[in-house]
Amino acid sequence: MCRMLAQRMSRSASLAVLLCAMTASVASADSVARGAAAFHRGDYVRAAQELSPAADRNNARALGLLGFMYEHGFGVPQAYVAAADLYYRGAVQGDPFAQAQLGLLYDKGHGVPNDYVLAYKWLNLAAARSCGRQRDAYLRFRDAVASKLSTYEIIAGQRFALGWVPDRLAPDMHLTVK
User: Whose CA is closest to 89, among 119, 57, 111, 51?
Assistant: First the structure.
């Protein structure tokens, strides 16, 4: 009898956790949608307020948008290191926008050390995970970075991209103040 009661309580607790997780996910999605809409309207302060909680919960889209805002100083202070951190957190989850933006930061040396091989890697990954105009843009960025590399460096960048696995923190992120 006690065992059956314990099983029912365990199932009820599991169901409650699942419902809370689903509610948090929906709330996060709503927050990201509201933040993206505010961003596209040019209401950057509101966008930052909406996106920050979702970014704190590691929502990849929120991380990419908020990173862009920090990179350019839209509604938040311009901070390349913060932008690089946000892009990286979104990039390792496989978000193509965050990957491309992180690649461009490595190309410029903004918030991270200037590293064309890592720029090539992230831009290559972004292009591989995109389609249409977005993919074409990422390929153009990647090819522009490739023009700065030797054949061996391009091969290294391709190997880094081939060896990359989503959701795994890579040791290539060395944030420095620039």
Answer: 57
**Six token digits for residue 8:** 């029912």
What six digits make up the tokens of 30?
């709503």
Average pLDDT over residues 8-14: 41
Report, as an integer, the average pLDDT of 139-144: 96
DSSP annotation of 42 reads: T
Q: Where are the domains of the chain?
A: 2-163
SS3 34: helix
The SS3 of residue 112 is coil
Are the beta carbons of 154 and 146 closer than 8 angstroms? yes
Q: What does CATH list as the number for 2-163?
A: 1.25.40.10
Q: What is the arithmetic mean of pLDDT over 142-166? A: 93
Task: Give Cβ neighbours of residue 144 (< 8 Å, ≥ 6 apart).
Answer: 107
Tokens 């889209």 correspond to: 61
Computed over every residue of the chain, the mean pLDDT equals 84
User: Does position 10 have pLDDT exceeding 80, yes or no?
Assistant: no
Per DSSP, 166 falls in state T
Nearest-5° Cα angle at 66, 26 to 91:
85
